[in-house]
Amino acid sequence: MNRLLIADLKRMWRQGLAIPLLLACGIALFVMSNSSVRSVENTRNRYYQQYRFADVFAGLVRAPQSLGNRIAEIPGVQRAQTRIVRDVLLDIDDMVEPASCRLVSIETDDPSPMNAVYLTRGSFPRDPDRSEVILSELFAEAHQLLPGDTIDCIMGGRKQTLRIVGVGLSPEYVYVVQPGLMLTDNRRYGVAWMPRRQMEAAFNMEGAFNYVSIQLQPHANTEEVIARLDRLTKPFGGTGAYAREDQESHLRVADEMSQMKTMAFVMPTIFLAVSGFLFNIVFTRLINQQTEQIATLRAFGYRPSEVGWHYVKMVLLLVGIGSAIGCLAGMRMSWWLTDAYIRFFRFPTIDYEFATRYAVIAILSAAAAAIAGTFAAIRKAVSLQPAVAMRPPAPRDYHGLWAERTGLSRWLSPVARMVVRRLETNRLSTTLSVLGMALGVAIVVLGSFFEDTIDYVVSFQFDKSQRQDVNLTFVETLSPSAVHDMQHLPGVSQVQPYRSAPVKLRHGRRTERLALMGLDEVPQLYRILDDQEKQVTFPVREGLTLSEKLAETLDVRTGDRVTVEVLDRRQFVKEMLVAKVFPNFSGPAAYLNRQQLHQLLQEGEQYSGAFLSVDPARLDQLYEEVKQTPTIAGVTDQSAARAAFDEAISESTSIMRVVYAVFSIGIALGVMYNCAIIILAERARDLATLRVMGFRRREVSMVLLSELAVITLLSLPIGLPIGYAFAYLTTVALDTDTQRFPLVIQPSTYAYATVIIVAGASLSALYVRRMLNSLDLVSVLKVKE
Amino acid sequence: MSTTKRGEKRTKVLFRATGVTKVYQMGEVEVHALRGVDLELYAGEFVVILGASGSGKSTLLNILGGLDVPTGGTVVFRDHRLTGADEDQLTEYRREHVGFVFQFYNLISSLTALENVALVADIAQNALAPREALRLVGLGERCDHYPAQLSGGEQQRVAIARAIGKRPDVLLCDEPTGALDVRTGVVVLEAISRINQELGTLTAVITHNAAIAAMADRVIHLSDGQISNIDTNDVRVQAKELVW
Ligand SMILES: Nc1ncnc2c1ncn2[C@@H]1O[C@H](COP(=O)(O)OP(=O)(O)OP(=O)(O)O)[C@@H](O)[C@H]1O
Ligand SMILES: [Mg+2]
């Protein structure tokens, strides 16, 4: 029997080649994505641990150092580290607009500080007489700054020169995002670490601090510590403590990684399922072709179980080959992908992990799918009476066929009739071919639709929603008259001031910290749109407007009441009604009519920032002016932000997109190839007969090609909707706490999938045609049907 | 016993094979299927090829029919040199001049008897009407039946009708009765013989059944890849009078 196995495999190697490759594609993708996700997660965890990323953070306005000691005594606190943190504007030679920078104090004499800086270049500051800093790596790279270079900084209204001595990374700022922005912009926002003593001097903070990080004892009650910490910091303008889970950088990293995880799970799972299913299809057809051999074996006296085992061995062998290729390729690719992710996140070291468990799951499920599919076919073959299986198939009645009933076949040449009737009578075979190709189409749609979705999100965000050219944030709130002056800044045609306040929203046990935006009733520049692109307005009304994501997080509905804790220095608490919840494509957000926000804060008109519409030609002038304005803390250029957003998104998803695109094409081609080969195998005898009769090669291949063409054409209208369904599943799975993707598939993507499939079918057809040309006519006909 | 007098049809040579050899290379082993065959076949004659299994009958027939090419020697059909012709030229040759019948009927199962025969009408210049071809083999009534609805002998007759549908110059039959019982075999042979006589098609039939030789004008004995003997029958026996 083993010799038969080898002979069988030799005979079917052409099909056999495509089968394990199909499976290998699914497994490789599954193993790759899961391994790289685990690797990135491990790497991050080790980074956090080695560089002592803090557990709890709190900001305040100014507190004496003695408060730090009291904080360290809170039960559950291992240690507390006080710091000075300030945002400043930088004037950088290679940029007209000012960049923003967060200055963070470091203790140069602490051997094991929390949130430690990992130096990638240069050294720590040593000279107490000079303003020396370590610059965050991404920012330094964006401006090609190296240790030894200097940058000009506007600190407390005075210009000062900072000397760069080192370039580094910190677990606290893996993701450096300017407050109020969606994504990193490494050119415009960075972090610089500066010795505490110099920070104290520059900001008049001697013996004081405005930031504290805490390391907890194992098993400490985080909420308890946060509550006590809040009580201690409140008198000093504390803005509310928060745990690592709410820390800006961690949140983004975690979010990015959870997205990676779902991406790594959903798409590869669909791929794996599809390749398992295709495996199944291919095997069913293969065994159907073997009926006679099975009958012969049975006639020789082999037991059904022996015959069954023969085929199970064949399946297992193919699964084994596919798994081996898939795992090896998956592992290799996961290293590559992990490297790319780690370059993106900037972790100092890499911990690779091979997701053994996932590999085992993938292999087992593939084997199960294959054996399950094969089992039915084998059982049918084995249960046949040998005599029945060796008899020619029962006469088919072609009269009831669609092609006959409609009279279509009367108009066809005998050759065309061959094609039509065969497609119609070999329903199982045709259906499986069509289904296989349809899945190929669907996979290509799945592999490339994300591009459209992202394009849509970008255009939604930047063309439709945020129509300002520049966003200014103020160091402290400004009065209407100061904002009025902004009308006269160069090139400014429209100003939309806003108020935003850091708040903590609470509903039952659920809380969320965010900036509550106070906007005009109908904002003109910075517009809020729902998922139907309808503008959301903020009339003076009885409460808050929440995004659906926030409402889900807080578990509230329109009409519910939430507690609003304002985290500003006047910290107070108020119950408010949720007046409206709207679905959108961004994260959690809360809005209020601006006047109402003023009332809530018990203040007159005070603005936190302004959105400007600016003549693009005069942007440079505007920036020159802004650099001289000490009341402005940050500037965001919308087109630059868009470019940065585009870059960040394409950087973080491009690898996956390429991988998916390549694999989907691979799977599609594999399916096409397999279909073509099977059709050739099923048709060899008829085609050889035609050749003997004197039909030319071109005429005979037309029979085969038109059959393939019909199958391809049938598969498109089925495959495209399946692709849509796959894409839908993916967006549903990607609907996380902070993000939701619209399902957008452009006609061009469908067209692309169609082109790929048609091209794949044509390639396979050409290949099969070549095989057909070298068909050994005599030996085909010598064998009994 | 009715007999047929041989006429003047022997005069025109259709095939001239000289020194034909065929060697199959099977890895290390060389199989000499034909070892120098010299043969002439004449227009309109009925030839039976006899020989032990493996003696090279099929090989010879396939070479004559343009399905295979010899390793050495030359084969000329009228003014076509079959040796040295490429695949496309051989296809054109088969298309215009040759009809094949095999042991396994090789009908297209999805086409009716009529449609199977009509296939050749697509490629032949001067084809018989498909119904006429079926009538010649005695199946005028079964036009609309699919192969699966016909007996083996009937299927073989459809195959013959298909082969002669294009009025070939030669009809080559490789064990046409090999899969049939005696009575059915006789019907098939009658059909072949009738074609030969009514259309004047040069007909070569391979068989293991020496009795069939009596039907032929000439009987070619092949042995171990060589022609050992050619008998000429003065009288042709009708198929139904054969003694098996
Ligand atoms: N494709 C092939 N490859 C290798 N050897 C072959 C091939 N075809 C035929 N042979 C060999 O050539 C020799 C002649 O074969 P051929 O088929 O002509 O015999 P035959 O006289 O028709 O026999 P039978 O009466 O059994 O059909 C045999 O020994 C056979 O094994
Ligand atoms: Mg033979």
TrEMBL record, chain A:
GO terms for biological process: lipoprotein localization to outer membrane. Belongs to the ABC-4 integral membrane protein family. LolC/E subfamily. Keywords: Cell membrane, Membrane, Transmembrane, Transmembrane helix. Pfam families: FtsX, MacB_PCD. Residues 266-386, 659-773 form the ABC3 transporter permease C-terminal domain. It comes from the Bacteria. Residues 23-231, 430-628 form the MacB-like periplasmic core domain. InterPro entries: ABC3_permease_C, Lipoprotein-release_system, MacB_PCD. It is a multi-pass membrane protein. This is FtsX-like permease family protein. The chain crosses the membrane at residues 263-283, 315-338, 358-378, 428-450, 658-681, 702-729, 749-768. It is found in: Cell membrane. GO terms for cellular component: plasma membrane protein complex. PROSITE patterns: PROKAR_LIPOPROTEIN (PS51257).
From TrEMBL, chain B:
CDD domains: ABC_MJ0796_LolCDE_FtsE. Residues 15-242 form the ABC transporter domain. The keyword Nucleotide-binding applies. This is ABC transporter ATP-binding protein. GO terms for cellular component: membrane protein complex. Keywords: ATP-binding, Nucleotide-binding, Transport. The keyword Cell cycle does not apply. GO terms for molecular function: ATP binding; ATP hydrolysis activity; transmembrane transporter activity. Belongs to the ABC transporter superfamily. Macrolide exporter (TC 3.A.1.122) family. SUPFAM superfamilies: P-loop containing nucleoside triphosphate hydrolases (SSF52540). It comes from Roseiconus nitratireducens.
